[in-house]
Design brief:
There is one protein chain. This protein is an alpha/beta fold and about 270 residues long. Helices cover about 35% and strands about 15% of the residues. It is built from 11 helices and 9 strands. The chain has helices spanning about 5-15, 40-50, 90-95, 115-120, 140-150, 165-175, 190-195, 210-220, 230-235, 235-245, 255-265; strands spanning about 25-30, 55-60, 65-70, 130-135, 155-160, 185, 205, 225, 250-255. Strands 1, 2, 3, 4, 5, 6, 7, 8 and 9 form a 9-stranded mixed β-sheet that branches. β1, α2 (about 40-50) and β2 (about 55-60) form a beta-alpha-beta unit. α5 (about 140-150) runs parallel beside α6 (about 165-175). The longest helix is centred in the N-terminal third of the chain and has 12 residues, at about 5-15.
Length: about 270
């Protein structure tokens, strides 16, 4: 266990994070604990899971067809290498260091495969979490669904990224498994009715602060609400409290630990 992970676990215990509050939204850490560990790495995601936090990860495809977890379409920013993911083989990408750039303590961290991430999630079946899957590359949705079924974690995934604005992709995912969860986006109130009515989505992904009536309409439709974007990604306690008060089901943020503390204080 790294010193950073040990610190985060100690922090969690001090907040009694094992307690479950049914009336709080589930917290989804954007690219994991990106302010505490290198984004989109197994070390990062394991820390999230130990803290009973969900997380969001990104999917790209390598030159030789493997699915890897990395935000950008190049390896330049988050590794010691360069080049487009789609033009590099998995073997080449696995030789890169995906941790040193963040802190020398994480030297040696690798770009994980999506299969490795899902296998890790499978180790934490007891936690009530949402894992948001941002599909960056084209035509990867069905492949991720099949991998998730292999590790029996499909019910914990929410497909976002290209999915939220592409009904054809949502249909492909749904046809691969009727148990897969996808979201349709509402960037503003005027787009809300269409997102709510989307047959291929059982979540509504909002990028604005919805009203309680809107959230209740989603719940009456047997769907759930996921909020992301600038309204909740930063340190915005008022917005977080609004999200909780109107009954939003999950919040994606860059500050998951502070959000958790804010919600507990608000209790």
């Amino acid at each position: 266990m790294t010193r950073v992970l040990a610190f985060l676990l100690s922090f969690a215990c001090s907040l009694n994070l094992a307690e479950v509050y049914a009336d709080e939204p589930l917290i989804v850490a954007h690219r994991g604990l990106l302010r505490h560990a290198p984004e989109n790495t197994l070390a990062n995601f394991r820390a999230c899971l130990e803290l009973r936090l969900g997380f969001e990860f990104d999917v790209e495809r390598t030159k030789d067809g493997h699915l890897v977890c990395i935000h950008d379409n190049t390896v330049d920013r988050t590794t010691n290498g360069s080049g487009k993911v789609s033009e590099l083989t998995l073997a080449r990408i696995r030789k890169l260091d995906a941790g040193y750039w963040f802190d020398t303590k994480f030297a040696g961290e690798k770009v994980p495969t999506v299969e490795e991430v899902l296998k890790l999630v499978a180790e934490y079946q007891q936690h009530d979490i949402v894992i948001a899957v941002d599909l960056k590359a084209e035509k990867v949705g069905p492949d991720v669904v099949r991998l998730a079924e292999k590790y029996k974690v499909l019910h914990r995934l929410l497909f976002i990224g290209r999915t939220i604005s592409d009904p054809d992709l949502r249909k492909q995912i749904q046809e691969t498994s009727a148990k897969a969860h996808s979201a349709a986006v509402a960037n503003n109130p005027s787009e809300f009715p269409e997102a709510l009515a989307a047959r291929s989505a059982d979540w509504v992904y909002v990028r604005y602060l919805p009203t309680k009536d809107e959230v209740e309409a989603v719940h009456r439709a047997k769907k759930r609400v996921f909020i992301a974007g600038s309204t909740v990604s930063g340190k915005v306690p008022e917005n977080w409290q609004h999200a909780a008060s109107v009954g939003i089901d999950a919040v994606l943020t860059d500050y998951p630990l502070i959000l958790r503390t804010t919600l507990r204080v608000d209790d």
